[in-house]
Write a structure and sequence with these properties.
heterodimer; A: mainly alpha; MetI-like fold; B: alpha/beta; Rossmann fold; 6-stranded mixed beta sheet; 20 strands; about 35% helix
Chain lengths: ~280, ~525
């Protein structure tokens, strides 16, 4: 733990991420104003003591919207990462443990999904099911699957050549147990690092999908949706786009810094130190 | 005045002192060897001489070349390295640029030397000097064998006509025959060019064969220095005595169960690997093992000897059930199998000890978990019985049960190899296949591990199949020797007979490549 905390970028990134996450969590229990409360007379207010970040075109409190939107963004990205890990990692491990036809199939499947951008998948799902936050989660989650499958397979392939895996096979372990006991624990750090990166990409993707109207729908809100509603009045009230825009930028930067720091801290290939020059 | 004078050299990494107070000197044309085990600081000493210490290392003491101390500036140091010091590293593949032809790489090192001659003349001359042909110069490093790559490295080191050649374990990645050739080449060149040699190795025999003066390093300190012959025949310090004793294998236990009936029979095993190509127009398959047949009697110790790439490990994998033979079969205690179809109930009867003690344990699992893993093959055992078996196996290899809760990184290489043996014994197998069981270990623990293996064989009546290229170990351990070359078994016999009258060309080469024992009076 001490080793983890000695990486300044990890500490800064993680702290900033946690601040946003705490804001988002707080919005579940309490926001300064209810976000669905429309109050036309007090619309387009500048930031003041009553409304710290001002109000939007419908008179809703911007701070409350940002808090709720941050939560939506985190939720969508996190569930999408969970889908990616839950489906992709077993696929990747299966490819590495079985090899042969299974590996070929998994690789072609990932190629196939990689060929479609998340937007296309989202449009497809929206056409089938209608726009909603759940559909954004599904679209981004599907997009995450091949990423994690590739990372898991790549990591597992380098582990699978080591002698302890052969020792496991000699001990009568089948492919499932080999993957579970020997491969998965040794690629966890890779997956955690990739998870933070996909988390920030997921937040961007959610913002993008909501912005083009395929993601979160009113009266729910998300950072991308706030951008979409503010763009019509961008020239008159640029503040309304700046607030959600900057929030997205800050969250993504925080996650990326945390991801980089995490990789430095746990990836042994990048670990600093000269422990092996004494030979 | 000495050519190279090192006095009071200490190297620290933060609080730990890796090299402390090392002093030695090297005369012109002298061949000086530094012997030490992994972690003894011998490589760091060499790096300090070349000014290539890794970041974070703090050096004190003085190093002087021809009476002038080493320059402090990196630029001047680089020029000095280019002109006066040549270096040969351990792993020739990573030391050569994979995208440059051999000619160009040698040419580059000639050009970096300021007083270079015409490269068109020098390159062929250097190639010839290290025993390569002109056509090798047009190749890329991956198109050369390990020994040829090491020759290219030597040619590059010679390009600047250095006064000192520093060779850091130049032969430990090579097989026996190649090793001997490269050592002879280095000795040859040093004599011809009147060049001083600083030779760093853990291999006493290589040092004894090559150097006239040696220094022994242990935990960062210089333990003993002296003439090579005197140091090895009458070592003064207890550490050197242990090292010399360990380099001779003398491990036969007094009593052993008598050799019994045939336990394992291998009948015409052939293994083809498909290589390259597409599904239907694949290239001609690579035949790793070619119609091999032999048998092992119970309580026998059979050795399989051969150069790297001869198929001995593939054969071992088929016998233990990790790989599948293309044709042919194996018969173990009356049951026939072809490799990976080894029936589950029989798997407990064969086990394998791997070569590399560092890769053979999962770093995320405790020793108890790893050692007990093969007990899954005996599902009828209760929890307590399993626990008792693991403790029994670990105590049989001379470690105590208190270590079981620890993780692999807390153990040394020798301890891990003991634990690997414990894992192989935990199912009480009949046949244990040992794939180069000691070649990754330091000299001083090799003897211990071999003695342990011999004792275990006597205690449990085990049958061993030892796979190795180390002939001295084979002579100490084996009852019978098979020599393998290019997938075939070319010679078979008792060790004494094979060592005295080798028949096949390969066996004769292997015998000729053996380095003389250290510490013996010269015959």
């Amino acid at each position: 733990m001490k080793r983890l905390l000695s990486h300044p970028s990890l500490v800064i990134g993680l702290a900033a991420t946690l601040v946003f996450l705490a804001l988002g969590l707080l919005s579940l229990a309490w926001t300064p104003y209810p976000i669905e409360q429309i109050d036309i007379p007090r619309r387009y207010l500048a930031p003041s003591a009553a409304h710290w970040l001002g109000t939007d075109n419908l008179g809703r409190d911007m701070l409350s919207l940002v808090m709720a939107g941050t939560w939506t963004s985190f939720l969508v990205a996190a569930v999408a990462v969970a889908i990616g890990v839950g489906v992709g990692v077993p696929l990747g491990l299966a490819a590495a443990a079985w090899g042969g036809a299974v590996e070929w199939l998994v690789l072609r499947l990932t190629d196939f999904v990689f060929a479609f951008p998340a937007v296309i998948v989202a449009i497809l799902i929206t056409t089938l099911l209608g726009p909603s936050a759940v559909n954004a989660i599904i679209a981004i989650g599907i997009f995450n699957i091949p990423v994690f499958a590739r990372v898991a397979r790549g990591g597992a392939l380098s582990i699978a050549t080591l002698d302890f895996v052969a020792a496991g096979r000699l001990a009568g372990l089948g492919n499932v147990l080999i993957a579970w006991r020997h491969l998965l624990p040794n690629i966890m750090s890779l997956i955690i690092v990739q998870g933070t990166i996909q988390m920030s990409l997921g937040i961007l993707a959610e913002a993008g999908l909501s912005y083009i109207g395929l993601g979160t729908q009113p009266p729910e809100t998300s950072l991308g949706l706030m951008l979409r509603e503010a763009q019509q009045v961008f020239l008159i009230h640029p503040w309304l786009t700046l607030v959600p825009g900057l929030s997205i930028v800050l969250i993504v930067i925080a996650l990326n810094i945390a991801g980089d720091g995490l990789r430095d801290a746990i990836d042994p290939r990048l670990r600093q130190g000269n422990s092996n020059v004494l030979a | 005045m000495s050519l190279l004078e090192v006095s009071g050299l200490s190297i620290r990494f933060g609080a730990t002192e890796a090299v402390s107070n090392v002093s030695f000197s090297l005369e012109r044309g002298e061949r000086f060897g530094i012997i030490g085990e992994s972690g003894s600081g011998k490589t760091l000493t060499a790096l300090a001489v070349t000014g290539l210490l890794p970041e974070g290392a703090a050096m004190t003491g003085s190093i002087s070349l021809d009476g002038a101390s080493l320059p402090a500036s990196e630029r001047a140091m680089a020029r000095l390295r280019g002109k006066r010091v040549g270096m040969v590293f351990q792993e020739p593949m990573t030391a050569l640029n994979p995208l440059m032809r051999v000619n160009d790489q040698i040419e580059e090192s000639i050009r970096l030397n300021e007083m270079h001659g015409a490269t068109q003349i020098e390159v062929p001359y250097l190639l010839k000097e290290v025993g390569l042909e002109l056509r090798h110069g047009d190749r890329f490093p991956h198109q050369l064998s390990g020994g040829q790559r090491q020759r290219v490295m030597i040619a590059m080191a010679l390009a600047s006509r250095p006064d000192i050649l520093i060779a850091d374990e130049p032969t430990s990645a090579l097989d026996l025959i190649t090793q001997r050739k490269v050592l002879d080449l280095i000795a040859d060149i040093c004599t011809r060019r009147q060049m001083a040699l600083l030779f760093i190795s853990h291999d006493l025999k290589a040092v004894a064969a090559l150097c006239n003066r040696v220094a022994v390093m242990h935990r960062g300190r210089l333990v003993e220095t002296g003439r090579a012959a005197a140091t090895f025949s009458a070592p003064q310090q207890p550490y050197t005595q242990r090292l010399v004793a360990a380099s001779r294998f003398d491990v036969r236990p007094p009593s052993r169960p008598a050799i019994g009936d045939t336990l394992l029979e291998v009948n015409g095993i052939t293994r083809d690997y498909r290589q390259g190509g597409m599904l239907f127009w694949a290239d001609k398959p690579l035949r790793a093992v070619n119609a091999v047949g032999f048998s092992i009697a119970s309580a026998e110790c059979l050795a399989l000897v051969g150069p790297s790439g001869c198929g001995k490990t593939t054969l071992a994998k088929i016998i233990v059930g990790l790989d599948k033979a293309t044709t042919g079969d194996v018969r173990l205690a009356g049951t026939t199998y072809h490799g990976s179809d080894l029936p589950q109930p029989l798997r407990r009867d064969v086990s394998l000890v791997f070569q590399d003690p560092f890769g053979s344990f999962n770093p995320r699992r405790t020793i108890a978990d790893s050692v007990g893993e093969p007990l899954r093959l005996e599902p009828e055992l209760s929890r307590e019985a399993r626990q008792a078996r693991v403790v029994e196996a670990v105590e049989a290899v001379g470690l105590n049960a208190g270590m079981l809760a620890r993780y692999p990184h807390e153990f040394s290489g020798g301890q891990r190899q003991r634990l690997a043996i414990a894992r192989a014994l935990v199912t009480r197998p009949k046949l244990v296949v040992l794939d180069e069981p000691v070649s990754a270990l330091d000299v001083s623990v090799r003897g211990e591990v071999l003695a342990l293996l011999a004792r275990l064989q006597a205690d449990f009546g085990l049958t061993y199949l030892i796979i190795s290229h180390d002939l001295d170990m084979v002579r100490a351990m084996a009852d019978r020797v098979l020599v393998m070359d290019a997938g075939r078994i070319v010679e078979e016999g008792k060790p004494a007979q094979i060592f005295a009258e080798p028949q096949h060309r390969l066996t004769r080469d292997l015998m000729a490549a053996r380095l003389p024992d250290v510490g013996m009076a010269p015959a």
